[in-house]
Amino acid sequence: MAHAIAEPDKFIHFEPAERAFIVAEENEAALSPSNHLDGSVPRRILITGAGGGMSRGINETLASAGHTLICTDVNLAAAEAASERVTSSGGQSYAYPVDVTSEDSVTELAAAIDRDFGGIDVLVNAAGLLDRKYLVDHDGSSFDGVIDVNLNGPFRMIRHFAPGMAERGWGRVINISSIAGTTGYPYPSYAASKAGLSNLTRSLLLDFWGTGVTVNNICPGVVDTTMVIQAVRDQVKAKVPTENIIDPKEIGAYIEFLLGDAAKNINGADLMIDGGATQVFRLFDDKPESFR
After folding, report:
1. Average pLDDT over residues 250-262
2. 50-84 b/e with 16+ CB inside 10 Å = b?
3. For the purposes of burial, counting CB atoms within 10 Å of the CB of 229, is it exposed (0-12), middle (13-18) or buried (19 or more)?
4. Does 86 have pLDDT greater than 70?
């Protein structure tokens, strides 16, 4: 459901108009900290890795709630396709390129977003890289490449975008992490990057103390995307108590919940969405032949 912010003749436009997020003076209270118990207040949401499989469900859920989406991806065509899917369904979305491993690229994006939208309210760090290499198969560059996307990338994005949220008195930083950050994982670069993201998140609470900005991780288990190989799908009933694979739209719904006033005291959390898998089982049985 789309949310009307104001009558057309009372709009204030940030230039350029074609990329404007429109705010009415009489509705400033609706865009600041509120008494809403759900996530229904329309927000400016920037999503990295917006062209990915998990992000497709996230985009759809958040757009249907009336938020303005800023879809970013290292592949501009993927970001544009994601944005087009939102707008073709009646939502409001815009596409920008960003390489989260490049300080210059993130700096350029931050300048463009400040120019075109006057900042953002919500940052969703969904860009991620999974390199299916065991320890013995890694070299320094392959390990560092995963860390740069999954850990350094969110750090760069948060550093450039969250201070503006703090200045405006409200904001949400939501990192898409993984249960691999808490349980271990056959692929150490991925597990280490997600574990680091969890502690980065907790550390940032000191930076945003009393500012109205919260920082949380969503840690999914097995999500229904093209990245999930059939062998993993086959293990779900044996390893996950709910016997469910996660629909990406569920991740979007949890993000939507975190935007509401009912979630204002959820801060620094690793929110496990895994059907209980991490509580009762080790999700994967495989290990490299050299260690058997």
Report:
1. 93
2. bbbebbbbbbbbbbbbbbbbbbbbbeeebbbbbbe
3. exposed
4. yes
> What single letter denotes the amino acid at residue 107?
T
Q: Is the pLDDT of residue 150 over 80?
A: yes
Handedness of CA 65, 68, 74, 78 (dihedral sign): positive
Residue 128 has pLDDT above 80, yes or no: yes
Q: DSSP string spanning 13-59?
A: -PSSGGGPPPEEGGGHHHHSS---SSS-S--EEEETTTTSHHHHHHH
For residue 67, report the phi and psi dihedrals to the nearest 5 degrees. Answer: -80, 155
The C-alpha atoms of residue 52 and residue 127 are separated, in whole angstroms, by: 8
Sheet containing 270-273: which strands, arranged edge to edge?
92-97, 68-73, 44-47, 122-125, 171-176, 213-220, 270-273
Q: What is the rounded CA–CA span in Å between residue 190 and residue 150?
A: 8
Can you read off the two tokens belonging to residue 104?
A: 């210059």
Q: Is the pLDDT of residue 35 over 50?
A: no
Q: Is the pLDDT of residue 187 over 60?
A: yes
Quickly tell me which residue has 């560059």 as its tokens.
Answer: 141
Single out the catalytic residue among 96, 185, 187, 190.
190
Q: Is 190 a catalytic residue?
A: yes
3-state secondary structure of 75: coil
- Per the rule left: phi > 0, alpha: psi between -120 and 50, beta: everything else, 268 is left
3-state helix, strand, coil in the chain (%, to 5): 50, 15, 35
Phi, psi of 15 (to 5 degrees): -85, 150
Quick check: 191 and 245 in contact, CB under 8 A?
A: no
Q: For residues 173-206, b (16+ Cβ closer than 10 Å) or e, as one string?
A: bbbbbbbbbbbebbbbbbbbbbbbbbebbeebee
